[in-house]
Specification:
The protein has 137 residues and is of the alpha+beta class. It has helices spanning 3-13, 43-56, 114-117, 123-136, and strands spanning 27-35, 38-41, 58-70, 73-84, 87-99, 105-112. Strand 3 (58-70) and strand 4 (73-84) form a beta hairpin. The longest helix has 14 residues, at 43-56. It is globular and about 45 Å long.
């Protein structure tokens, strides 16, 4: 793993409202971001996503797992741990990063199961999704 990617992953692992101000050392100004809920572009828009995460979730943190890098691309497995309505939750996922010539993230594509990670945690919808999964298995 190259040094820039290692620094970026350290930033994610220690991300807090205070370290969010260092986002310009991690993301390119016109970086693209996509997850199961949104697609957006620009460092300010990405910063707003993380700021909202800190406002709406309790103790959010990323635990970095396996990293596979080839050239300017890297795939990173992670666990996202947080509290919501007094419950401790965890989402397992992965991110494909592409770094620009300066070593900043210019593309961030998240892959995770929104149904298992979010929707199944909701009372009525969660029951319905779990039942549907059991029937399809």
């Amino acid at each position: 793993m190259n040094e820039m990617l290692a620094r970026h992953l350290d930033w994610f692992a220690s991300l807090s409202p205070a370290t969010l101000a260092q986002i310009d050392q991690v993301y390119a100004a016109d970086a693209r971001f996509r997850d199961p809920f949104q697609a957006l572009q620009g460092r300010e828009a990405i910063q707003a996503v993380y700021a909202r995460m800190f406002r709406t979730l309790g103790q959010p943190r990323f635990v970095i797992g396996e990293v596979v890098q080839q050239g300017s691309r890297a795939f990173v497995n992670w666990d996202f741990c947080f509290a919501l309505h007094g419950r401790q939750l965890q989402i397992h996922g992965g991110t494909l990063f592409r770094l620009d010539a300066a070593g900043l993230i210019c593309e961030h594509l998240d892959y995770w199961d929104a149904a298992a990670g979010v929707y199944e945690q909701l009372p009525v919808l969660g029951w319905l999704l779990r039942r549907l999964k059991r029937r399809m298995a």
